[in-house]
Amino acid sequence: MTTATFGTNQVDWEQRLDFDKLRTDRLANLKKELEKSQVGALLAFDFSNIRYMSSTHIGTWAIDKAIRFALVTRKTDPIVWDFGSAAKHHKLYNPWLDTTTAEADADPHAPHHGAVRPRAESGARAGISTLRGAFNPDAGIADEVASKIKRELEKYGLLNEPLGIDIVELPILFALQRAGITVVDGQQIFLNARAIKTGEEIGLLTQAASMVDAAYEKLYEFLRPGVKENEAVGLVSKTLYDLGSEYVEGVNAISGERCSPHPHVYSDRLIRPGDPAFFDILHSYQGYRTCYYRTFAVGSASRAQHDAYKRAREYMDRAIALVRPGATTADIVAVWPKAEEFGFANEEAAFALQYGHGVGLSIWEKPIFSRLVSFDHPEVLVEGMVFALETYWPSSDGWGAARIEEEVVVTATGCQVITKFPAEDLLVAGQRYYAVGGPLALERDSQSHLNTVEGRGGH
After folding, report:
1. Is the distance from CB of 78 to CB of 70 less than 8 angstroms?
2. Cβ atoms within 10 A of the Cβ of 136, count?
3. CA spacing 20 to 30 A to 412: which of 52, 138, 142, 434?
């Protein structure tokens, strides 16, 4: 397991992340879970599962289209049916798609353990789904997909065993059922395989977090009265892409009175003196995501805002202190407040405010930490898990709030935090102001009428 960061290039003079090992280990994890299950094969349409299974990627433009699919069976390595010329590209540049079958591994004539016979067919093939219904249903695309899958299951004697699928469009589901295939939920198999990260995965997640560290440094320098939330989004996105991000999934930029309740979407609001502002930066490096909140005050912070931040930080620190192998998600959420304590009717209404979730090829993986589910369905923490813990607390003034998030790796003896931008106390960003008596205080409850008795709180 490594939490080191390196340059983004490979070099001859230093052992860095091993992508061949990444590909091999991910597939081995998936096959291990497949063997433990009751299904004969797994069919993936979700891009994260396809990437985990096959180490193929055709760009983020296609992640919401469900146009490509991949199959792995108990007896074969992955087969990927891909969009347009991507399949041809895979044949040229993805040699791992033409590797083993279970029969090849068992070949008594193989010169050594693990030697393989070439496939009769490539594991990279042209194929396409229904374009989320855009194809005319009478074109028979769904039946074509089903026939491709049925052919492989028949070839390896798996047609009578259940087929696990992660997500599926209804026409594809119905076509598979017409073809005599029993379809069951396979998503849990994928997520169980992905829950414990390999050393290479942890390295990539750490590198992704280090890029967000840099983005927050730029953002801290940039924040001041007069900039807009969407400008902050643009700055962060450019910083990440310049550093080599594959995909900036989102920058949640929230300021001022928009902080409470949390709207989960940025706007064109102008940031004003004394505003609270919190941000969540979600991006992907080599497929591996971040989910990473930080809160700032711009120019100065009210006492109420500072108090809210200290409360959110306290809940965070209590949670991190409990993270170790053998602890459960119920142990963690027990130190977080009930929904009613911070203004919500129940845990469903407050969902994702005091929250935790696995981070990997997608931002919400196993394990999940929430008072909504974790007491009744606790999950045990295991060395190698990587997850984000996030806390929220509204300020007593009724419009500010604090939001903090840390990503942690479960180690043999506890955990390591891989989100490094300072967050132990509330940071004040923007211009420092000076009056004739010296610098203005960074904690200020009011920015006008301070020269009156009323403005001084009656003193």
Report:
1. yes
2. 9
3. 52
**Adjacency order of strands within the sheet including 365-369:** 365-369, 355-358, 386-394, 401-410, 415-417
Does a structural domain hold residue 4?
no
**Which candidate, 34, 321, 38, places its Cα nearest to that of 161?**
38
What domain range is 140 assigned to? 19-194
pLDDT in tens, 255-264: 999 999 999 9
Look at residue 369 and tell me whether its pLDDT is greater than 70: yes
Closest residue by Cα to residue 78 from 103, 118, 43: 43
Last residue of a domain, one of 165, 194, 223: 194
Considering only CA atoms, which of 52, 96, 393, 298 is closest in space to residue 192? 52
For 240-257, b/e burial (b = at least 16 CB within 10 A) is beebebbbbbbbbbbbbe
In the chain, the amino acid numbered 126 is A
User: Band of the pLDDT at 337, cuts 50, 70, 90?
Assistant: very high
pLDDT single digits (tens) 217-237? 999 999 999 999 999 999 999
